[in-house]
C-alpha cells in the first residue's frame, strides 16, 4: 500500500485507530502543525520570488533570456504561493470549525452534568411541601408588615379627642 493511500485510509496512530478516529485535540494539533509547515513554505516562496525578481533586474536588457527565465520561475512560485494561501484558508476554517464543535460538545456535557446535579438536588423536594412553606413565609411576612406598620404609626398619647 502506498504512503498516500495509507494516509487517506487511516494510517494514523494506533491510539486513534482503536477509538475510531482521532480526538479533537489530536486533530487540532495536526492542523496547527500543517498550518506552521505551510507558513514556512510561504516564507520560503516569498524569498524565492524576491530572489528571482532581483535576478531578472540584474540581467535586465543585457541577458534577456536569463531575465525571462527568472520571471517565469517567479511566476511559478507566485502560483504555488496562491495555492498555499488557499490551502491555508481552508485549514484555518476547518480548525476553527473543529474548535467550535469541541467547545459546543464540552458545553453540552457540562449542561448535562448541571442538569443531573439539579435533578439530584430536587430529588428530595415535594411540590406540596414547597407550597406550604411559601404560604407560611407569606403569612409571616404579612405578620411582620403588620407589626412594622403598628410600630411606625405615630403614637398620639392623648392628642386625639373623642367627641
Automatic annotation (TrEMBL):
Q: Where in the cell is it found?
A: Cytoplasm, Cytosol; Late endosome membrane
Task: Show the segment(s) annotated as Disordered.
Answer: 1-25
Composition bias of kind Gly residues appears in 9-21
List, alphabetically, the InterPro entries matched. Snf7_fam
Q: How does it sit in the membrane?
A: Peripheral membrane protein
Predominant place of localization? cytoplasm
GO CC aspect terms: cytoplasmic side of plasma membrane; cytosol; ESCRT III complex; late endosome membrane; multivesicular body
Question: Some GO term, biological process aspect, for this entry: which one?
Answer: late endosome to vacuole transport via multivesicular body sorting pathway
State the UniProt keywords alphabetically.
Answer: Coiled coil, Cytoplasm, Endosome, Membrane, Protein transport, Transport
Family per record: Belongs to the SNF7 family.
Identification of the protein by name? CHM4C protein
Q: Which organism is it from?
A: Falcunculus frontatus
Q: What is the lineage of its organism?
A: Eukaryota, Metazoa, Chordata, Craniata, Vertebrata
**What gene name does this entry carry?**
Chmp4c
Amino acid at each position: 500500500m502506498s504512503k498516500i493511500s495509507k494516509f487517506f485510509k487511516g494510517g494514523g496512530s494506533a491510539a486513534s485507530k482503536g477509538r475510531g478516529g482521532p480526538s479533537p485535540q489530536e486533530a487540532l494539533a495536526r492542523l496547527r502543525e500543517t498550518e506552521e509547515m505551510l507558513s514556512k513554505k510561504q516564507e520560503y516562496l516569498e524569498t524565492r520570488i524576491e530572489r528571482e525578481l532581483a535576478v531578472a533586474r540584474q540581467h535586465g536588457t543585457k541577458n534577456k533570456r536569463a531575465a525571462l527565465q527568472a520571471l517565469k520561475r517567479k511566476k511559478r512560485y507566485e502560483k504555488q504561493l496562491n495555492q498555499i494561501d488557499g490551502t491555508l484558508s481552508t485549514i484555518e476554517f476547518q480548525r476553527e470549525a473543529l474548535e467550535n464543535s469541541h467547545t459546543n460538545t464540552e458545553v453540552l456535557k457540562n449542561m448535562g452534568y448541571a442538569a443531573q446535579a439539579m435533578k439530584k438536588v430536587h430529588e428530595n423536594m415535594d411540590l406540596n411541601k414547597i407550597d406550604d412553606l411559601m404560604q407560611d413565609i407569606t403569612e409571616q411576612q404579612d405578620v411582620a408588615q403588620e407589626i412594622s406598620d403598628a410600630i411606625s404609626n405615630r403614637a398620639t398619647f392623648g392628642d386625639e379627642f373623642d367627641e
